[in-house]
Amino acid sequence: MNHRRTLPRLLAAAAVLAAGSLSLSGCAGGAGSSGPVTLTMWLNGDCPKSNCVEAPLIAGFEKANPKIKIKLVSQPISSYFQALKSASVTHRGPDIANMWPGGYMTPFLRYMANLNDFVPKSDIKQSTSTKYYAVNNDVAKAVYAVPTGDQWYVGFYNKKLLADNGISAPPQTWDELSADCKTLKSKGVLPIVNGAEYGASTMGPLPEFSYIASTLSPADWSGLYKGTVKYSDPRLQSQLQKWADLYKAGCLNKDAFNFPDPESKFEAGKAAMFLASGSWEVGNLTTKMGSNVGLLVPPYSPTPQHTLVETAGSAYAVMNYSKHEAEAGKFAAYILSDAGQKIIAKFGLPPTRPGFKTTNPLMNQLSAMSADPATQLYPMFDNYTQPGVTNALTSKLPQALVGQVPVSQALGAVDAAFAALPSSQKNVNVNLARK
Amino acid sequence: MIDTAGAEQVVRADARVAPGRRRRKGMYGRSARRSGVLFTLPALVLVVLFAVIPLLQAVYYSFTDWDGAVANWVGLNNYVSTALNPDLQRTLLNSLFILLSIPVGMVLPFATAYLLSSGIPGARLLRILIFAPTALSWVVIGLVARSFFATDGVVNRLLQLIGLGQLALNWLALPTPALVAVLITFNAAVFGVNTVIFLAGLATVDRSMVEAARVDGASAVRILMSVILPAMRRFVEFVFVITVVVSFTGLFALIFVMTGGGPGASTTTLEFAVWQTAFSSGDFGLGAALGLLLLLLTLGVIGLVRLFGRSGDEA
Asked: If you average pLDDT over residues B105-119, what whole number do you get?
């Protein structure tokens, strides 16, 4: 074999192959191509049939736009934003990304496209909660994501379990909760189940902390973000102590700190109340428990609870490093379009544009509560806390609940985490005007 | 009669040849050096690209507030924040506990390797069984360990089975038991690799020395302590160093899955704190400072081990 003649041939063949591959890849991924386009969309969590509006939205969108396909990629909740950050820094993230409002969104502002360029302004204006994804809550300025619905932190109760044990209505105050807990315990029923959800290693205390902190006025609540009000404020300590007393009194499962999948236990009727949750579970619980599941705003209040913790629900942003920004923008527009809102309503989520009512009675109940002038609305507390503070809350509050550390020490650690923040993160102004 | 003239001629001839030889040797030396440099160059380029430059970048970023995209110079702020971190002390203590567990965790692999090398029946099968789990990822090991130490897990069931049910705990929910569980899992996870390294080391021990000691009437313990262990010193040191490196820089997935660093910070290591700070909090500058602290700590421990190793050589 003549190597001197074979080598150049091999090199030439390799060059032809490489050029061919490059031209082919150019056809598939090139910007502005008229051929079929596949967009990648990241979802924060998994996509079970009963709890994933994204699936019918994508199906509807693909039907309306046959040349655009969307590949849905589920990312673990526990590391979603970290993964998105890493991918965005290197501009190798998805075309469309699941987004949460407030502090979750802030690190991504420079990577998200202004959706005013893609979504009809009339639809944005009509949407009740798209403003939470806009600069200064003003949709006239840049809008970075469009929500698939409104969202609330809320608990649930098992109607039958309460009724069978002589409790006619769900508790509305700390005292009522304590009394119901005693009644249920005496009958051998676990009053409240808590634990680690969605594959996490420990319980997530943030939904409940929003209600614990609702003892503060909206102004004082804002003060927590700025550091003018301490987390170890006596009012917060008192609230947190009452929460910890529930555990001490045996109202929660003993392994509440890290019991895996508490929701399944609640669904199975093995616990009367499940308070560390939110409206994103309404669909799933309705499917599993039917009319036996009732809404229960965590009654962490000395007087009847009129607080509701509400923020715009899960939303979708178009990443400005996407090679298919225009096509991705079409999906954002589809979410707020009539067709998209109908899909959301049919799925059982509360659409954000008026005129589209959901089929789920619990969702409609939440919408009604939210619209009630007597309801004091607060945002999801952790949506606006600095990441260092969120970490401290997530790490210390479960310890306070199960009595591993005193309440004062746990909240003191959160203050210490705030003190350790860089000065640029301390001056946070959160607009708590909700309506 | 000795022909001195001839001898002188030979010497002169040698003298004439010598510079040529030196020249050839010099040329060979240069060529060998050039080849050496050429062969080393790819590795050198990789080391510079993937170790030296990132390290220098990390040093720079540790003096900035880099958030992954924009970096402003903040001087020593990150190092001050690290020092003020209320969980830092606990984090360093956790790393120390893991470090201290390593020698204890090395005894079992050594004993196992010693038994396997002594020709017990089924040694080959046992070798495979012991080494096979090392192919598992840390995430899988963590998940298995999590169910192992769960309230209704194997540990508690075993305790109940042997009548020690009162010792059953929610292991991963309590600060000290959670750390113990992580330490046990970590040492169990490196057991297979360490056993195989010790096995390789035992194969290099001069059998004639062992036989000689036996003929001299030395007991099995004496042979182990005075012949085998000294011959194995390099392997013991190697296992210790790589286990230290893994304990400092490779435990993230295990801790993330088993405890998430909790309860509180009771299982948070420096490596986990780097992830938490950089990726969870988005503070890459502070994360870089913590990362450098971790690097210095790792190098310090390895340096100490090498120092003791060298003094052993001199002795």
From this structure: 89
Q: One-letter amino acid identity for B73?
A: W
CA distance A212 to A205: 10
User: Band of the pLDDT at A135, cuts 50, 70, 90?
Assistant: confident
The stretch B53-69 carries a mean pLDDT of 90
Closest-CA distance of chain B to residue A266, Å: 19
Q: How many CB atoms lie within 10 A of CB B254?
A: 24
pLDDT of B145 strictly over 90 = yes
Instruction: Judge whether B304 and A435 are in contact, CB under 8 Å.
Output: no
- Quick one: how far is CA B267 from the chain centroid? 20
Question: Which residue in the set A89, A201, A417 is minimally distant from B260, CB to CB?
Answer: A201
Q: Taking residues B227-240, what's their average pLDDT? A: 91
Least confident of A240-254, A287-301, A384-398: A384-398
Tokens of A344: 């959301």
In a 10 Å sphere around its CB, with 0-12 CB exposed, 13-18 middle and 19+ buried, how is residue B275 labelled? Answer: buried
The answer to which of A203-217, A230-244, B93-107, B171-185 has the lowest mean pLDDT is B93-107
Top residue of A265, A395, A414 to mutate, by most chain B CBs within 10 Å, is: A395
Whether pLDDT at B281 is above 90: no
Which among B84, B261, B279 has the least Cβ separation from residue A85? Answer: B279
Q: Which single residue is written with the structure tokens 């946070």?
A: A428
Task: Tell me if A395 and B262 make a contact (CB, 8 A cut-off).
Answer: yes
Q: Note the pLDDT tens digit of each residue in A34-56.
A: 679 999 999 998 888 777 899 99
Mean pLDDT is lowest, of A174-178, A264-268, A417-421, B54-58, for A417-421
Give the tokens for residue A246: 């529930």
Q: How far apart are CA A24 and CA A17, in angstroms?
A: 10
Sign for the pseudo-dihedral over CA of A380, A102, A90, A74:
positive
Predicted local distance difference test score (pLDDT) of residue B314: 55
B92-121 burial: b if 16+ Cβ within 10 Å, else e: eebbebbbebbeebbeebbebbbebbeeee
Nearest residue to B288 via CA among B55, B49, B46, B48: B55
Chain A residues within 8 A of B280 when measuring between CB atoms: 82, 387, 391
Chain B residues inside the 8 Å CB shell of A258? 170, 172-173
Name the CATH topology of A152-310+372-426: D-Maltodextrin-Binding Protein; domain 2 (3.40.190)
Q: What mean pLDDT do residues B227-248 have?
A: 90
Please give the DSSP secondary-structure letter assigned to residue A319.
Answer: B
Give the SS3 label for residue B155: helix
Cα–Cα nearest to A66, from A41, A93, A36, A42? A36
Cβ pairs A/B, distance under 8 A: 84
Q: Which CATH number fits domain A35-151+312-367: 3.40.190.10, 2.40.50.40, 3.90.190.20, 3.40.50.720?
A: 3.40.190.10
Question: Strand order of the sheet with strand A293-296?
Answer: A190-192, A271-274, A155-158, A293-296
Cβ-contact A345, A359 below 8 angstroms: yes
The residue to which tokens 């051998």 are assigned: A188
Distance CA A187, CA A185 (A): 5
Q: Where in chain A is the domain with CATH 3.40.190.10?
A: 35-151+312-367, 152-310+372-426
Backbone angles phi, psi at B64, to 5 degrees: -130, 175
| pLDDT greater than 60 at residue A26 | no
- Inter-residue contact B278 to B191 (CB < 8 Å): no
